[in-house]
Design brief:
The chain is α+β, with helices and mostly antiparallel strands and 524 residues long. It has 12 helices and 31 strands. It is 24% helix and 29% strand. A hairpin with a 4-residue loop joins strand 8 and strand 9.
């Protein structure tokens, strides 16, 4: 018996993992893939000498630096659910890609290093998730190292992120003295470093071990954990599913991804609790139901050269309704053009497989010859659909860029065009000379750009920093070219809209005083 669309959609769980660099995000992703039976061994990210790289860090530059720079997509089945994980870059300079990825998921998992607590980057990402009002699940990682007091960690989470924390389990000891987890939700103790058969001991109604002969019962750490659990069940937040669904409360789990401790308990709970795909808002204020028969989706990311053997570009589509099948004819809303989608791939990092069908919640990669842009809507049926715009960001750092070798202009322009369409950097041209200027949210974006231009397009580039600038768009009807100077460079963006790059706030205010009627605008 074949499944109905509604049944298929109800099994989808699509989420992003967000964290500060180095909090263990890629490691936890690997462990989840291990449970899903997708990989046989987890490669730790830092294994530079061993040549064993994490499955989800696939770009050359990521292997060299040991950080995830682009979001990759992984899909697997677990406990009768179809899981889609979007692994996002933890590196702050790549926040743009991460923010866009957060528009394509139904829930987020926040990984926090229990020794460091909430870091600035986590706070930034968290804001974007909070705006979307999607559920957030928290995993306090690295219990196998000495970390901060669990009560402090939860207090800091509530304080800095303005969200209620509700502990689902509690560490018994920490670092070298880690004994296990006191599982509040499942009413049992999970022992550290035990085989699966005797890993769990049940608790009685008083929160004591049912097995009274177990040596753990006499341990100080167990006493302390039990006292702290009693304290938080009295004074802490009560578990509230409605609050979790709206992103006002986060269930907090403790564990260690590296030693695979507490991860499965977390995954089991997550799969039960996380929401299935919801209706998506369109620009005209309507909502598209995920079980609507007509197919629809939007492009949230474009990635070139995932396979260096073939020059290729893949547009990542979040399916919002209906069912995608190979060879389906869709309308691209921006151009009103009809496209036949023959070449699709589902992801498991680098080993891409051809996809035959996908439903709401799934992420599909389409081989793209230049039709798509980030934020595009595609749909089937007569009724036009246009989803809400994805957020755009005002770059803060700028570089002038030229080709080192004048004879290689062709590969220089090709590389520029493709990398800019990916949204990795933003491209501007000087208003009068058409010289190229790149804009980015962070310095690492320029490094990656330079590296990829040389590696993938065989084009060496010269980059000279203009430094940090304030970008402000101006209405073309108000523009007079003589307004520009070295302190406010006049450029145009990809859509030929004019903007000024001001040297600093002082230069911007001076301009506003001089031309009080001119309206300046910015992006996010």
């Amino acid at each position: 018996m074949s499944e109905t669309l509604k049944e298929k959609v109800s099994k989808r769980r699509t989420f992003a993992i967000i964290s500060h660099p180095d909090a263990g995000k890629t490691t936890i992703t690997e462990q989840l893939l291990l449970f899903g039976g997708v990989i046989r061994s987890a490669g730790t990210v830092k294994g530079k000498k061993s040549g064993q790289f994490a499955t989800s860090d696939w770009m050359e530059i990521e292997k060299k630096r040991g950080i995830s720079v682009t979001s990759s997509v992984m899909q697997f089945d677990y406990k009768d659910k179809r899981i889609n994980i979007l692994d996002t870059p933890g590196h702050e300079d790549f926040s743009e890609d991460t923010y866009r990825t957060l528009m394509a998921v139904d829930a987020a998992v926040m990984v926090i290093d229990s020794a460091k607590g909430i870091e600035p980057q986590t706070k930034k990402l968290f804001k974007v998730v909070k705006q979307r009002g999607i559920p957030i699940f928290t995993f306090m990682n690295k219990l196998d190292r000495d970390g901060r007091d669990p009560l402090d960690l939860i207090a800091e989470l509530e304080d800095l992120l303005d969200i209620e924390g509700c502990a689902m389990n509690w560490p018994i000891g920490m670092g070298k003295g880690l004994k296990g987890l006191y599982d509040i939700h499942n009413h049992r103790v999970e022992l550290y470093r035990k085989d699966s058969d005797d890993k769990f001991i049940d608790l009685d109604d008083n929160g004591e071990l049912v097995d009274k002969n177990n040596s753990l019962q006499q341990e100080n750490d167990f006493e302390q954990a039990r006292d702290e659990v009693a304290l938080i069940s009295e004074a802490g937040n009560e578990y509230d599913e409605a609050k979790i669904m709206s992103g006002d409360q986060t269930p907090v789990f403790f564990g260690s991804a590296l030693t695979n401790f507490g991860v499965q308990t977390f995954l089991d709970h997550f799969v039960d609790m996380a929401p299935q795909p919801k209706a998506k808002k369109t620009k005209d204020g309507n909502e598209i139901d995920p079980v609507n028969e007509e197919f629809s989706g939007f492009v949230f990311k474009i990635q070139a050269n995932m396979n260096p053997a073939h020059r290729d570009r893949i547009a990542f589509i979040r399916v919002c309704s209906g069912e995608f099948s190979k060879g389906i004819d869709v309308t691209l809303q921006r151009t009103k053009k009809n496209l036949r989608l023959n070449n699709a791939t589902e992801f498991m990092s680098d080993q891409r497989e051809q996809v035959s069908s996908a439903v709401a919640g799934d992420i599909v990669g389409l081989y793209d010859t230049g039709n798509f842009q980030i934020g595009d809507t595609i749909y089937t049926g007569k009724k036009e659909i246009e989803f809400e715009d994805l957020p755009q960001f005002t770059p803060e750092l700028f570089m002038e860029v030229t080709a080192k070798n004048v004879m290689k202009q062709k590969s220089f322009h090709k590389g520029m065009t493709q990398l800019v369409q990916e949204g990795a950097v933003q491209l501007y041209k000087k208003y009068s000379t058409n010289d190229y200027i790149l804009g980015a949210v962070g310095q690492l974006q320029f490094e990656v750009f330079k590296f990829r231009m040389q590696n993938e397009y065989n084009s060496e580039v010269e980059m000279s920093p203009i430094g940090s600038r304030i970008a402000r768009w101006i209405d073309p009807s108000q523009l007079d070219e003589s307004m520009s100077s070295s302190r406010n460079i006049l450029v145009k963006d990809m859509d030929d809209n004019p903007l000024f790059l001001f040297e600093n706030r002082f230069a911007e205010n001076w301009f506003k005083d001089k031309y009080p009627d001119v309206k300046l605008t910015s992006k996010l």
